[in-house]
Amino acid sequence: MDILRGMRIFVTVVDGGSFIAAAEQLDTSNAAISRQISALEDHFGVRLLNRTTRRLSLTEPGQALYDRAQQILEDLGEMEASVGQHGAMPSGVLRISAPLSFGIHTLAHLLPGFHARYPKLRLDIDLTDRVVDLVHDGRDVALRIATAPSQNLIARKIAPVRMILCAAPDYLARHGTPVKPQDLAHHQVLSYSYLSSGDTWVLIDAAGEKASVRVKPSIHASNGDLLCTLALAGGGIIVQPEFIVARHIEAGALVPILHGWRLGDFNLHAVYLSRKYLSVKVRVFIDYLAAALGKQTVPGIDDPRT
Asked: Residue ranges of the HTH lysR-type domain (predicted)?
């Protein structure tokens, strides 16, 4: 049988809720739709739909096929559009994963312009600081801030992300200001749970010299904004992206420390699955981010529409 045609019909049946609705949409007979579904079930050797006189419901294998068939048909449509006409407007659902604070502070300001440029794309955005599994979590693209992305994925560097060591003036007045990296071992530190180096901070100076220090965090947390709030209250020293702490530093509520030292070279990366053909919807999203952020350090945002 024609598996691709069978999948199209199957998805149409599920979306329409009945064989009759699918037959009307596809301009064919109810019997033809029934034969196609039966042939698809025979091909896979499983029941895909539970049929009653009043309604249809998906079996577990049917749900799995429906989810995969939707993605396959969507990818096929994008591939045809990309090959057939390079200027085609991408459509469908773009599933994005991004760090929580980056999503709120930076990505949210870019999305209105992106949506205005690509109105046929629907966005499904998951904001989480954990490293998602693109396949298991069903994401098309993930944004990650790291010194180096996973070797198992294709990654495109979008922009540098400056990490800043800082603390509240009140904390520094009570505990003193560190003058060298080793001093951090004797200070209260508020640490990001997903920091790749853990509690061993490796700082680098302008000459490329490295200093490794084992910190003893009083608090671990999986979100930078929470740590920033604690630091503002005088809770200790943090190292966080500029897009989280910049406005507080400008207001004087946080003070940068250890000038001339940095915690490695962090960048914003867009990562996606290692596929031969990059879908149009992922490509235009990554290109849009690169145009907005690629020539500067996050969080500065230039509207790509201008």
From this structure: 1-59
Burial class (CB in 10 A: 0-12, 13-18, 19+), 154: middle
Please state whether beta strands 121-127 and 92-98 pair in parallel, antiparallel, or not at all (unpaired).
parallel
pLDDT 10s digits, 44-94: 999 999 887 677 889 999 999 998 888 888 777 666 655 544 456 788 899
Tell me what pLDDT residue 299 has: 52
CATH number of 163-263: 3.40.190.10
User: Are the beta carbons of 231 and 254 closer than 8 angstroms?
Assistant: yes
Q: Give the list of residues 6+ apart from residue 42 with CB closer than 8 angstroms, or none.
A: none
CATH number of the domain located at residue range(s) 92-160+267-293 in this protein:
3.40.190.10
Q: Is the dihedral of CA 113, 117, 118, 119 positive or negative?
A: positive
CATH of domain 3-84: 1.10.10.10
DSSP state of 137: T
What tens digit of pLDDT does each residue of 220-234 get? 999 999 999 999 999
